[in-house]
Amino acid sequence: MINPHNADIWYDKGLAYNKLGKSKETEECFNKARELIRSIDIH
Length: 43
Fold this sequence. Notes:
- By secondary structure, this protein is mainly α.
- The protein has two helices and no strands.
- It has one domain.
- The protein has helices at 7-19, 23-42.
């Protein structure tokens, strides 16, 4: 099972969407990765 709280996975998913030319999905994945990284920095 993939951990949905792993920022690296969201980033990699965003890279894959980017290669497919899916800019909306790319942005959503990168935003999720940033959100997770920020939540780690806060704690």
